[in-house]
Target: Flavin-dependent monooxygenase
Amino acid sequence: MNTSTSNTTSTSCNTSTTKIAVVGAGLGGLACARVLQLHGLDVTVFEQEASADARPQGGTLDMHGDTGQVALRTAGLHETWRALARPEGQQMRAIDPLSADVVMDEIPAEDDEFKPEIDRGQLRGLLLDSLSPGTVRWDRATRDVTPLPDGTARLRFTDGVTEDFDLVIGADGAWSRVRQALTGVRPEYSGVAFVEFGLDDADRRHPALAAFTDQGTMVAKTGGNAIFAQRNSNGHIRGYAVFHAPEDWHAGFAFADTAAVRATLLERYAGWHPDLLGFLRDNDGEFTHRPLYVLPVPHAWTSTPGVTLLGDAAHLMPPLGVGANLAMLDGTELATALATSPTVADAIRVYEARMLPRSIETAAACQEGLVHLLSDEVRPAAA
Model:
């Protein structure tokens, strides 16, 4: 045992006897587990969902060359990802909401591969398939985590069972249970609501809306209201109505009442061009409410042996195209630090010394970007 602080000890972390728990089977947690296994470290991922297919995984993600793609290279998965990625998805379009005219259309160059798109579900599947069988323990929800005096941490599940680990990594997203062991900070509502919808087989069933979206991302916005639409794989388009609203703006109806949601949105977007209103009027009928929550900036904590955070658990910020990239970079950098540092506590300090300043700077930029997300400027603010 090597001394890491005056009151705690920390296990050597460059050996397969070190026990590491990752809470959350999202992209950051899975990327972390993948790199840990590449280095021969013992890791178990605990996920509260019942299976990999328990729910849809969301829309499309752009993997940036200086963050997400770096993580994929570290994980040895860049070429596998590249076979699934869509460079043409980098196209960005802006549509005038009143005339439905195209006012901006940025088509990527043939050799532009800085941030190709990939469906989130495809990327998650790629990461899951890269892990040793049994790495992910499904249907294991975490209640809380307690740092212990010897530098380890106790993970308690909702069924009351506890297990001790040399390190518990909170990769459990916006409402992280692990975060409560370090900061106790909870996300705050940003004042911006997202309402998600989908268009299946869009080129055949919704050709006019597919033409608006083309191969990448389309945005139309005015007066604090916006519609974003993104091309996914297999002819699917995922869209979002985005607007400023109080947190309880939908209190008068249930989101299961599709007709009520549609009528409310069409009233909010009254005056927009009828063709663009097709995104709200003619979609496939299931709306999902995604209020936008963020962690305060800066969000940091005192380095604590036995526990750390990555991804949204560490730095939940507005969805401006960087969250998944940072989560994967966090995960692979943490795993590399664990594989190359003399103790777990040393690895945590090395990782957090790099991750926290980066996340604080990026979160501040995203907070500023959120101001422009719903402004009337032509250039889309979201990726």
About this structure: Confidence is low (pLDDT under 50) at residues 1-9. The first helix runs from residue 27 to 38.
